[in-house]
Amino acid sequence: MKDKILHYFLIILFFVFSVNELTAFDFNSSKQDSISYYLDEVKKHYQNDYSLAITNVRLAEKLAVKTNSKKLADVNYSYACVYYVNGNYNKSLQYFLKATKAYKKNDDKIGLSKCYEGIGLIQQAVDRHSIAINYFNKALNLIDENPKQNSTTYLNIAISYIEMRELENAKNFLDLSYEFAKKANRINLIHKVENRRAQILFIEKDFQKSRIQLTELLKNTGLSNWERSFAHTTLAKVYLSLSKLNLAEENALKAFTYAKKTNSLWDLERNTLVLKDIYQDLGDEDRSEYYLHLNGVYKDSLYNSVKLDQLNLQQLEYQETENSNLLLEKEESEKKLLVIKILFVIVVIKTIIGLIFLIKLRKANRQKTKLNKELKLKNSQLQALDQSKNKMFSILSHDLKSPISSLLQLIELLKEGAFTEEERKQVLNEMHLQLTSTSLMLRNLLKWATNQMESSDINLQTVNLIEKVKEVIDVYYVIARNKNVEIMHDFHTDENLNILVDPAHLNVILHNLLSNAVKFTPENDYIKISYSVTDNVCLKIFNKGEPIRDEKIIEIEQKNSKINSEYGTFNERGTGIGLLLVKQYLIPNRATLKITPLKDEGTEFKICFQKA
Length: 612
Known about the structure:
The protein has 612 residues and is of the alpha+beta class.
């Protein structure tokens, strides 16, 4: 009895497992059919409706990932095709690379051939036509006589030759494409061939034949939106060349409508440029400007995309080189094993040769490393010299601008006879004083520039601060006088305020601080220069006027690049480098700067130096 029960139990258990396995098989089979269905839908719509195509490929991907299907390679290939038509070459290339890897793993030569074809199309899109043709030839070499695949490849080779304006080569490959397309009964590809033949006729300026061929082509109801857009655009260019502007406009607008359906940036950029030319010839400037603007938008989108694609293409080339190297290494290893089995002596000789080569290579690498270090040092020195040169020109332009501008104003007034004889003598004396001071300043700056070019070392010397300030005041005397600004220099004749500083650096610091004070002092006001002595010798430059804002002080103290310049009280415009230079020279001279806004009075700049 027990044996019978066990027997029935085993039969039931076997039946249950069999049903589960059959159900699982049917379920997976159903999913595989669904993936194929979605991918077929992508093929139908990727040249007509971007949204529908991308939706179907995403559904196929979801199922392929869930079932770990080999069709994931086809999904990635479909993604690449959709993004290519859309003009998103960066994403298209990424998916072609994914598909290439999967097809290699599956040993699918046809799939791999299609991927090389796609990569060639992206190369073609960024105007690298010779490289594109190489990829198309790689695609051809992977497969035997395959009319369906070969017809597409020959067409793409012809397109590259059209873009290179090698029209005879283009015609030959269009003939090959047409021949294979007829064998494979690929009506849609025949339409593409006819489209490109009409384009060649247009390039050769045979406008009537091009028009007739395009008109006949557009009668076909099976044309994709992509092909219709291309055909109408070429036809619009034909009518534009024949000065039939209304027909040109009609066809260009149709092309634009079809291009928007496929969302192809390349076609949209091409169509808007034709529309701009048509409306320009029609005298409709508003519409011409509108389509010129649209053309710029689409061109910018393609340009940014192309820049990214070129980077990825470089990465692709690197990966291809690496793969070729690995293949060569594998072949070389197999040859070495064969040689070992046949002639051990030859292997020994090769090993010795290899060792000699490695020793020479190591020696060459050491020399290369040494040369690279020397080159790096030379580059650093060159950059330092270049920075010094830039700084020199900045200081020269900044510190000479104000005195020279003031002298030019006085010369203009002298030419106009604006002064009496007595005033003229006074002005000439002031000009002499100004030129003397400016000449002294220029000599100091040139001396500093020479030192900068020869060495970056600081040259600390004992300098009489009062005398140096007097020299700088002489430079800005006329500039201040033109604004009726009084420069009050408060010091005791018996004071001997010696400081330890680089004279050239001090010259730059004083010029910039006094120039700044004159710039922001209102007309009919004053600047007061005074001193204080504690552990250090401090120079205080106070200018009457609106106090400096707190946020400006923060910017000056914290910013390590050019400071935003503001207009002075006479709308003087600075360069923004003055206070930056002051800050740069404080540190090596162990000096400090404090900026204090005095409410309703003005601003005080206090700079403290080391005692000598």
